[in-house]
Amino acid sequence: MANGKIRNQKGFRQKVTFKTLGLGNGIFPTDIDGMFEIQNKLWIIFEIKHKLAPITIGQKLLLERTTDALNSIDDKSAYAFVIDHEINVDKDIEAGECLVRQFRYNGVWKRPEKPVKFKDAVNKIYEKHIK
């Protein structure tokens, strides 16, 4: 993906399966929808869910453990987001327009006090840590 555009639409729509990657007692990979890494200083990791869908335990643990580990290193900051959409499956989802359901920073999950678009939250964090 470059400049927010998908280079290979056909490949993007292709399903990736993890059937042969099971470890031990049913441990399988999970996926996360997106991640920013900015100047080796800031990470923003996010998972997009339909408004009514819960986040899986594996995804939540991955978000928590990754951001907590990065936040434990001096001069590094990491945020995790679960963002919501209400888009029908036959339409594309614009991630920046999704609403923040919850976010994690410094070991604590929080919910926004009022509706916040993901793009606005990302820009605010970028301004705080990079600019």
Describe the structure.
By secondary structure, this protein is an alpha+beta fold. The chain contains 3 helices and 5 strands; from the N terminus they run αββαβββα. The chain has helices at residues 9-12, 57-71, 118-129, and strands at residues 34-38, 42-50, 77-85, 99-105, 108-110. Strands 1-2-3-4-5 form a 5-stranded mixed β-sheet. α2 links the parallel β2 (42-50) and β3 (77-85). The two termini are 24 Å apart. The mean pLDDT is 93.
Topology (elements, then pairings):
Elements: H1 9-12, E1 34-38, E2 42-50, H2 57-71, E3 77-85, E4 99-105, E5 108-110, H3 118-129
Gist of the model:
The chain has 131 residues and is an alpha+beta fold. It contains 3 helices and 5 strands, in the order H-E-E-H-E-E-E-H.
Give me the strand/helix succession: HEEHEEEH
Describe the largest sheet.
5 strands, mixed
Low-confidence stretches: none
Query: Separation of termini?
Result: 24 Å
Number of domains: 1
Shape: globular
Overall average residue pLDDT = 93
**What is the radius of gyration computed over CA atoms, rounded to a whole number of angstroms?**
16 Å
What strand order characterises the main sheet?
1-2-3-4-5
Strand content: 25-35%
Descriptive labels:
131 residues, alpha+beta, 5-stranded mixed beta sheet, 5 strands, 24% helix, 25% strand, globular
